[in-house]
């Protein structure tokens, strides 16, 4: 049983220390170790996406930076960034003693800074099977007698697998000043297999317009740091009509960085299925391109591709 401790540390200061490298000095008693859940939750580095780095380009010719390499890098960095933020936040909090303990349930908080419009608490419950349920709740301080709402909830397993979900609608209700998003994100991970999957429903753009859309995302990394990513969108994107089209991007790359992207558009209001393929070298420059709609001329040699055939799911 973890011993309850009273400290002057705030959750906000703990997150700042992790992100900014701020020293907390004697803020906590150093003989207290982190909560056991810290050893079960994956670190952000455990589910990071190892995509080779390169400068972006809008060029579309053999020898220029491959445009679908850039798209692949953008997708993976954006989605991985959200996952990393959640894991960094929870990891930082559980490294310090809980505010209270009730049996197998541990609570950090509630806490808020002086000008925060909401307060927060993290609850971790140890289950009989050795896994941990955890949730980050928030309460709107601008509304009298507002109740706590769960914004992020997950389950972590000692074998390195787990899942969590983010509710952006709840986040906006809890803190409408700093949040204006909508929709749900579900994440599953397997640290041992280096796999990450996401399911995303109903997003809102910067102007506050909600779109009925569904995204599926899957990433797997080989032991040699090669990678395989599939990003699929279901949304209405073709006129006329309101049926949802399916757009799929699959990118595969070797440990050297050389890779291939295959794209497919189909269903909905589209009369025909359209496919495209692009390959890039170890310098991330286009070596081959073709598409079935003749948007751009076929160029390069498919024999130069790290993967010579398309393998869309």
Give short descriptive properties of this protein.
3 helices; elongated; mainly beta; 15 strands; 15-stranded antiparallel sheet; 313 residues
Outline of the structure:
With 313 residues, the protein is mainly beta. The chain has helices at 11-20, 67-94, 168-174; strands at 100-102, 105-111, 118-126, 132-140, 149-156, 161-167, 184-190, 195-204, 210-221, 227-235, 245-253, 259-266, 274-280, 286-291, 299-300. It has a domain at 66-273.
What's the SSE blueprint?
Blueprint: H1 11-20, H2 67-94, E1 100-102, E2 105-111, E3 118-126, E4 132-140, E5 149-156, E6 161-167, H3 168-174, E7 184-190, E8 195-204, E9 210-221, E10 227-235, E11 245-253, E12 259-266, E13 274-280, E14 286-291, E15 299-300
Antiparallel strand pairs: 1-2, 2-3, 3-4, 4-5, 5-6, 6-7, 7-8, 8-9, 9-10, 10-11, 11-12, 12-13, 13-14, 14-15
Helix pairs in contact: 1-2
